[in-house]
Amino acid sequence: MAGEIQLNGISFASESSETITVNNGTLGSSVVFPTGTFLQVAQNQFNNQYTRTSTSFGAFSTAVTATINNCSTGNDILILLSVTFGNSALDYANFRLVDQTNSNATIGTEGTDGLIGRLQVSNTFTVYSHSISVLYTPPAFSSGSLTVELYGKSTAGTLYLNRPGQSTSSSNLASSITLIEVQG
Fold it and tell me: Are 128 and 85 within 8 A, CB to CB?
């Protein structure tokens, strides 16, 4: 049976042929979605070339970050990291994610070689690519925001993000950090 629901004379929902259609609705701020629902996405895709010349973890020549805003306490953040990199020496490249919002706390469970581990560079200036995902529960948001930064280290030489082989010219190589708020 076809019908409709009205509030103050405005059609809110209608039914036809066993299909319910909701019209002109806006969800209020107190609506709670089921656990695991993706709520929003923020991404920083970067194609500039960044360097790190150190045997200890730290920031690249320019901070490589991603920020997600308007998050709710108790929600998780799914972090997707994709990096394109090379090294000037035949050695190892290591990566770490840190939570800038919470005193640069290390994100994820990592061993002595970082979150991704030891990625052996077998040929100087060869371009490599790696990705990883981490479900992170931040201890706090800063005014509803969370900023994640990528750290790196190289056991020898210089670690390069987005450098096309031995060329120092700009390229179409890109890396990215994607942050997805997940209902907790």
Answer: yes
Structure tokens given for 16 = 């036809």
* Burial of residue 60, with CB atoms counted within 10 A of its CB: 0-12 exposed, 13-18 middle, 19 or more buried: buried
DSSP characters over 54-87: -SS-EE-SS--EEEE-S--TT-EEEEEEEEEEEE
How far apart are the C-alpha atoms of 7 and 172, rounded to whole Å? 53
- On whether the CB atoms of residues 158 and 130 are closer than 8 A, the answer is no
The model's pLDDT over 37-84, given as tens digits with 9 standing for 90+, comes to: 999 999 999 988 999 999 999 999 999 999 999 999 999 999 999 998
- Tell the burial category of 123 from Cβ atoms under 10 Å away from its Cβ (0-12, 13-18, 19+): exposed
Question: Residue 13's beta-bridge partner residues?
Answer: 5, 22
Phi-psi region of 144 (alpha: psi -120 to 50; beta: other; left: phi over 0): left
